[in-house]
Amino acid sequence: MSNVFPIQIPERQPSRISPCPILEAVFEARFVSPQPWATMPGLLFAQIREKYPEQNNLPVAQLAEEARRQNPALMLLPQIQFLSNSFVIQLGPRVVSLGTKLNAYPGWSAVAEELGWLVERLKAAGFIGETERLGARYIDFFGGDIFNDLRLGLQINEQPLQGLQTDITTLLHRDALAVRLHVSNGAIVATKDGPASGSILDIDAWFGSLDADLFGNGLARFAEAHHAIKGMFFGLLKPEMLSKLSPTYE
Amino acid sequence: MTTLSLPNRTPAYVLVEGLQEFASVSTVHRTAPDGWAREELLLRKLGARGWGRVYHFQNYYISGWGEKGQVLSPRALDAFFRFMETASFPTGRSTQSVFLTDRGGVELVWEDRNGKSVQVEFTGTGAEFYQAATEEEGEVAVDGLAELSRRLSA
User: Is the peptide bond before A41 cis (omega within 30 degrees of 0)?
Assistant: First the structure.
C-alpha cells in the first residue's frame, strides 16, 4: 500500500462557490463512557435544551439494549437526535455528532462556533470518557456525471471508463488523518423540488484516539479535518468545473 | 464514520439500484474502511488465534464489561497496534498471547528466543513492560512505542 498522498492540494482556494454543492456536513466524535447509555440523553439534554428543544428517538433505539450490544455496528449508530433551527445533534452509546440540515450548509464559521458551544456543553454533561476518534464528513451533490469534472476516474485497458454508472471508494492517509473518499455518479438525493439524480462526492476524514481528544485538541482537529476536506475538494476539481462554480477569493 | 447514518432522516443520498450491493458474500469478511491494514498486520504477526482474540475485544468489549462496567481503552488499543507495526517475534517459540487487563488495557505476552517471557501492557498513556531475561521493567509513552517494540523484538 502506498503512503503517497495522491491529491494535489491547491495553495489558493476559494472562500465561496455558487451554487454551494454541500448536501450535508457531519462532525462526529466517537467515545467510550463510564456512564450507562440510559443516563446519557438526559445528561446532554439538560445542557442543550434551550437551543435544541426538539428531540426524536431514532429507529435503532427501539431495539433492546442487549440486542444492540451483540451487534457492534449498532453501538456506533445514534439513537436520539436533538434539533435546532440550523443543526442536528445526534447521540448514541459511543457517538455524538453535529450535523447541518440538508442543503442548508451555513458556512464554516457558523459550524465552528456551534462546535465550540457543543463541546463545552458535552464537557459539562460529563459522560464522555476517552475519545475513540474524531472527524468530519462532507457530502457534495452535482447534477450530471462528476467523473467528467474530476481529476479522478477508472480505467480499463488503460482507457478511461466514461459514461457508465460508476462508484469508487478509497482510503487515503495524510499524516495522522485517515480519509475515506467516495465518488459515485449514480446517486439520488432529495431536493426542494423532489428527488434528483446525479453524482456525489463524499469525503470522510478522521483522527484516531492517539491523535484526538475531544476536550483537548478537539476543536483544532475538527478544523483540521474541515480544512483537509476543503483542500481535497478543490484539489479534485478540474479548473473548468471550478470556473463554473463562480469561485470568489478573499 | 462510515457506519454513521441518519436513520430518522432521509439519507443524504442513495445509490441507484445497479450500484447497490444487496447481499454480502459469506466467504468474504469485509473490514472496516480503515481496518484492512490492521487486520492484515494481526494475521501476519499473531496468526488467526491472535487476530480472533483482538477482533473479539474490539467488537464486544469496547462498550463495557464486568460488574464495574470496565471499558476497553481506545487509546490502549491504538497503542497496541502502533507497537505491533514494528514488532517481530522469534519463530519456533510458542505463539504470542493477547489479553484484556482489569483496567481496560491490552496485554501482549510472548517468549524471547531463549524461552524467557516478555510482557507488555498497553494503556491509555503508552505501555508498561517486563522482560524476564534481564528482569527489566519500565514504562514508555505513546511516542516511545516503536522504539520499545524494536528493542524487545531484538
Answer: no
Residue B30's pLDDT is what?
58
- The verdict on a CB contact (< 8 Å) between B1 and A133 is yes
B2 pLDDT tier (thresholds 50, 70, 90): very low
The minimal CB distance from B75 to the residues A69, A99, A130 is found for A130
Q: What is the 3-state secondary structure (H, E, C) of chain B?
A: CCCCCCCCCCCCCEECHHHCCCCCCCCCCCCCCCCHHHHHHHHHHHHHHHHHHHHHHHHHCCCCECCCCECCCHHHHHHHHHHHHHCCCCCCCCCCEEEECCCCCEEEEEECCCCCEEEEEEECCEEEEEECCCCEEEEEEHHHHHHHHHHHHC
Burial A160-178 (b: 16+ CB within 10 A, else e): eeeeeebbeeebbebeebb
The domain spans of chain A are 22-244
Q: Could you read off the pLDDT of A99-147 as tens digits, one per residue?
A: 999 999 999 999 999 999 999 999 999 999 999 999 999 999 999 999 9
Task: Tell me if A97 sits within 8 A of A26, measured CB to CB.
Answer: yes
Average pLDDT, chain B: 82
Which burial class, exposed, middle or buried, applies to A134 when counting CB atoms under 10 A from its CB (0-12, 13-18, 19+)?
buried
For B101-135, how does the pLDDT look when each residue is reduced to its tens digit (9 = 90+)? 988 899 999 999 889 999 999 999 999 999 999 99
What confidence score (pLDDT) does residue B154 get?
66
- Contacts with B6 from chain A: Cβ below 8 Å: 78, 88, 90, 99
ipTM: 0.79
Choose among B34, B37, B63: nearest Cβ to A94: B63
Among chain A residues, the shortest Cα distance to B125 is held by A210
